[in-house]
């Protein structure tokens, strides 16, 4: 059962990252409009558990980078 929880946790982290990235892409800026540009970006996140949160973020980053190769995730570990 703990393996199932781990998979769900990774999936939940993936959805959280995708949602955060979508919101970040729609955020304000000095650009000329919508978030359909091809330039890459960096998303900064804070996480507190290397075995859970940080692992999930790294896995989600790999999945997202398949469609967005210029994307980078900067994770700050909170103790």
Would you kindly provide a written description of the structure presented here, covering whatever features stand out?
- The chain is α+β, with helices and mostly antiparallel strands and 79 residues long.
- The protein is built from 2 helices and 2 strands; from the N terminus they run H-E-H-E.
- It has helices at 2-25, 50-67, and strands at 42-47, 72-77.
- Helix 1 (2-25) packs across helix 2.
How would you briefly describe this protein structure?
Helices cover 53% and strands 15% of the residues.
How is the secondary structure organized here?
Layout: H1 2-25, E1 42-47, H2 50-67, E2 72-77
Parallel strand pairs: 1-2
Helix pairs in contact: 1-2
Helical amount among residues, as a percent range? Answer: 40-55%
Across the major sheet, the strand order is: 1-2
What percent of residues are in strands? 15-25%
Structural class: alpha+beta
Looking at this protein, list some descriptive labels.
alpha+beta; 79 residues; two-stranded parallel sheet
């Amino acid at each position: 059962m703990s393996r199932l929880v781990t998979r769900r946790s990774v999936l939940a982290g993936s959805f959280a990252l995708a949602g955060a990235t979508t919101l970040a892409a729609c955020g304000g800026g000095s650009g000329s409009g919508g978030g359909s540009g091809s330039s890459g970006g960096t998303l900064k996140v804070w996480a507190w558990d290397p075995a859970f949160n940080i692992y999930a973020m790294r896995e989600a980053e790999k999945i997202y980078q398949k469609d967005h190769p210029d994307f980078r995730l900067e994770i700050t570990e909170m103790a």
